Amino acid sequence: MGKFSLDEFIQKTQQDDNENDYFELETERVLEINLNGEVWSKMGAMISYVGDIKFERERVLEHGLGKMFKKALTGEGTQLMKATGKGRLYLADQGKKVTIFDLQGDSICVNGNDLLAFEPTVKWDIQLMRKMAGIMSGGLFNVTLQGTGKVAITTHFEPLTLLVKPGETVYTDPHATVAWSGNLQPEFKTDISFRTLIGRGSGESIQMAFSGEGFVIIQPFEEVYMTTSSGG
């Protein structure tokens, strides 16, 4: 950022104290939530807050028995945290770029690892990518969000949106795929053979295939993350 006096640095980087939107980008990598009620966020995403805000880890049956079983089957699960109260809440995830969507009856599917926060008015459900089980580890599930309200996702670097048109299938690397329109149902194309396994990872021979009409959001980064055990 260059050289600054302390006063110059504070002036350049200080938070915006004005009353702004419910979800707002404080910087391109920090989400500010002007909280007056409650919000759901990714567990561990809170980096700071001002005001009277309480945090509660998602309870086992908070979102119903069906979602509990789905979360158990994914291994990693989408660990959520509920923030309740009034104040300014700041969220971030490993320095990734934050994008805010304002759903207005729309639906979007987000890779479980890339979901940062959403309003409680947004309905959500976990979708398991069963066809991928046993082929690749990590990222085997996505979260479908629909309805009305704000949703924040994260990407490594600048996201790119690919338009899916009828008769023109779009193929993506699963580890670089962040989100897609809720009406699309991705298929998986595999080309694993002895030849493709020599000198390269087998994951490079697996692609997600999107057909129909909609969009796919990708990032210029292959995010490989391991599933975590359900033990303490």
Number of helices, where a helix is a run of at least 4 consecutive DSSP H or I residues: 3
Order of helices and strands: HEEEHEEEEEEEEEHEE
Please estimate the helix content: under 10%
Major beta sheet, specifics? 11 strands, antiparallel
**Number of E strands:** 14
Radius of gyration: 19 Å
Termini gap: 41 Å
Inertia-based shape: globular
Name the poorly predicted regions: 72-77, 226-232
Core attributes:
mainly beta, three-stranded antiparallel beta sheet, disordered C terminus, 232 residues, single chain
Characterise the protein shown here.
The protein is mainly β. 9% of the residues lie in helices and 47% in strands. The chain contains three helices and 14 strands. The strands form two sheets. Strands 1, 2, 3, 4, 5, 6, 7, 8, 9, 11 and 14 form an eleven-stranded antiparallel sheet that branches. Strands 10-13-12 form a three-stranded antiparallel sheet, with no helix packed on it. It is globular and about 55 Å long. Mean pLDDT is 82; it is low at 72-77 and 226-232.
